Amino acid sequence: MEMxxxxxxxxxxxxxxxxxxxxxxxxxxxxxxxxxxxxERGVGIMLTPNIxxxxxxxxxxSDRIIVTTLSSKPFDTNIIQVYAPTTDHDDTEVExxxxxxxxxxxxxxxxxxxxxxxDLNAKSCSPCSMKRPSAVCTMTQCIYRDPHVQCFPxxxxxxxxxxxxxxxxxxxxx
Length: 174
Fold this sequence. Notes:
The chain has about 170 residues and is an alpha+beta fold. The chain contains 5 helices and 10 strands.
């Protein structure tokens, strides 16, 4: 399997496009997924047989968010796989997604280690204008609009210039 060859123990999947939510086991590998009523969107997490042994459970939040809990020491670990809407979507849909993610994080046990991974469809930030000397600019702070850090988006171009993020506001796209 490709996961073994690449030495990946936990693989996050976006755009699974499967209906419903379930767990599938094959050759010891486990995959949990969460989809909607249509063959659109969908997220999943695949675990190697060794990591799958520590799976305590999973929570299909929506077709854009799934959470797994892994038994680990000293604290359990929550893996949150997300597939955020792009900025081309309606502002309400984007805000609803981040509110749902925020609510999900608040419902998880506070002592658990939390790892958010997936397709955040976000812009990178740099440099930062810091209001606190100890603040560090991270993608999460940009996404959650941390009131203590102001991040400025930068232009991104893929190595062969085939993909670029275009820094446009909704008004510019209209």
